[in-house]
Design a protein that fits this description.
This protein is mainly alpha-helical. Helix content is about 70%, strand content about 0%.
Length: about 140
Amino acid sequence: MSARSKARRRALDILFEADVRGARVPEILDARLTRADPPVSEYAEGLVEGVVEHWQEINERIGHHAQGWTLERMPSVDRNILRIAVLELLWRPDVPPRVVIDEAVELAKSLSTERSPAFVNGLLGSLIDAGETTASGG
C-alpha cells in the first residue's frame, strides 16, 4: 500500500470516528495527532483539514450527484470516502482524477457494503463528467 493510500485510510478513520461519535473533526484530529498511534501523516492531516475547510461545498457536491440519496442516508464510511475524494478532485491538482476514483473505490471495497464501490464510482464519475474537477477550475 502506498504512502498516500495509507494517508487516505488514516484520514478516513478520523472523519469516520468524528461522524460516528458526533464529535467535531478538528478535535478528533488533534487527539490522534497527539496520540500518534498509529501516526497521522502530513498528507492525512492535510486531507482532514481540507475536508473541514471545504465541508459545505463538498457536501453540496456529493448531495447534488447522489441521485436519490441524502448524505444522512448514506453509510457513514461511504459519506467520508466521498468527502476525501471530492476534496482531492476539486482542490488537489497533483492527484489525477483516475487515481482519486481508484483509491476511493478500493476503500469502499475493503471497508463498506457490497454495493458501495459501484455507488462511489458512479457518483465520482458523475462529478467528473459534469466537469467538476481541478482541471476545470473546480
